[in-house]
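retry 2 of 3: previous attempt timed out while embedding NDP. Reduced batch size to 1 and resubmitted. Inputs unchanged:
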Amino acid sequence: MSTIAVVGAGKIGEALLSGLLHGGRPAEELLFTERHPERAAELTRRYGVAAVDVAEAAKRADVLVVAVKPQDIDPVLDELAPLVGPDSLLVSLCAGLPTALYERRFVEGTPVVRVMPNTPMVVGAAMSAVSPGRYATREHVRTVSELLSCVGAVVEVPESQQDAVTALSGSGPAYFFYLVEAMIDAGILLGLPRAVAEQLIIQSAVGAAKMLAESDEHPVILREAVTSPAGTTINAIRELEKHGVRAALLAAIEAARDRSVELGKVHEEPERH
Ligand SMILES: NC(=O)C1=CN([C@@H]2O[C@H](COP(=O)(O)OP(=O)(O)OC[C@H]3O[C@@H](n4cnc5c(N)ncnc54)[C@H](OP(=O)(O)O)[C@@H]3O)[C@@H](O)[C@H]2O)C=CC1
Ligand SMILES: O=C(O)[C@@H]1CCC=N1
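retry 2 succeeded.
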């Protein structure tokens, strides 16, 4: 039995707890820390997982998952520093923060694995990318990858690619939700009842995602199969091109990557003496 503690059970921390429970991990093997007692009580009621303080989390957990906002990391590092060491295993889900930041603040040799997951972990369909820090061994990477494989797919990438991964799959679900939201609005514009528009678009999204995942065809081929000569789809595609939607996506994802880099830079600090 191994215990996993999530430090900061907000959106992604809760998604991880919920996904692990959904994947069959017993509640007794999970812990979390939260700074608002009402939020902690609500999560314990909802999931049957115990809320503890950071000291207890560090003492009892085999894997400590840090899931606070990058802007909130400093006090968490200060709290964790005297409690962790080479026998611990730290997992950071924080966008932009390099493993080197943790390594600088912790006892030398403390293993850290950087992970960029995404919220579909609540339904066992996450995409998580893992990168070992300087002191993380293959065994540490295996432990973290096995843990995450209970809540979706896992890929290992060099840490230098994590800002791009964050922009692509970390934020990725938001782009799809945004697209779905806009397409539902289009249904309203065309006079459909909202409930009908929602059903049409969500089922089309699920169907398209299933085809992307299950067929061997490239997305271009799948799109071409919908685009009949002189038909309806090509008229829509022409408008998408005219409005620069492809360029907008490239720029949007580049901006997300830049923000991830920036979040890491804010924490680029000189060695503490
Ligand atoms: N949301 C997402 O889809 C993804 C998020 N991430 C990363 O996960 C991290 C969390 O993001 P997200 O879940 O969206 O953010 P949230 O703000 O929802 O969650 C962060 C949680 O940490 C709590 N917290 C802050 N400081 C402490 C502390 N000292 N001790 C205990 N708990 C604390 C916050 O409490 P409070 O409410 O008081 O602030 C909050 O509940 C970020 O670093 C983000 O980059 C990574 C991949 C995807
Ligand atoms: O928006 C964010 O900063 C986080 C990281 C990836 C997804 N959500």
